[in-house]
Amino acid sequence: MAENRTYLKITAMLKFTKKDILEISSLSVEEITLILDTAERMKEISERPVKKVPTLRGKTVVLYFYEPSTRTRTSFDIAAKRLSADSISLSGSTSSMVKGETLIDTARNLEAMKPDVIILRHPSAGAPHMLARAVSASIINAGDGMHAHPTQALLDMLTVRQHKGTLAGLRIAIIGDIAHSRVARSDCEGFTKMGAGVILCAPPTLIPKGIESYGVSVTSDINQAIDGADVIMMLRIQKERQSGFFFPSEREYSRRYGLNLEKLKSARSDVLIMHPGPINRGLEISPDVADGPHSIILDQVTNGVAVRMALLYLVTGGTRNADSD
Amino acid sequence: MRILIRGARVIDPGFLDGRMDVLVQEGRITDIQPPGILPPPAGNDVAIYEASGYILAPGLIDMHVHFREPGQEYKETIASGCRAAAAGGFTAVCTMPNTIPVNDNAQITRFILSQAAKACGVRVYPVGAISKSLDGKSLSEFGEMKGAGAVAVTDDGKPVMNSLMMRRAMEYAGGLDLPVISHCEDMDLAHGGSMNEGAVATRMGLSGIPNAAETIMVLRDIALCELTGARLHIAHVSTRESVRAIREAKKHGIPVTAETAPHYFTLTEDAARNYNTHAKMNPPLRTQHDVDAICEGLADGTLDVIATDHAPHSPVEKDVEFDQAANGIIGLETSLALGLRLVESGVLSLTRLIEKMSTHPAGILGLASGLKIGQPADITLFDPDRTWTVDARRFESISRNTPFDGWTLKGKAVLTMVDGIVLMESL
Question: N or C, which terminus of chain B has less Cβ within 10 Å?
Answer without folding.
Answer: C
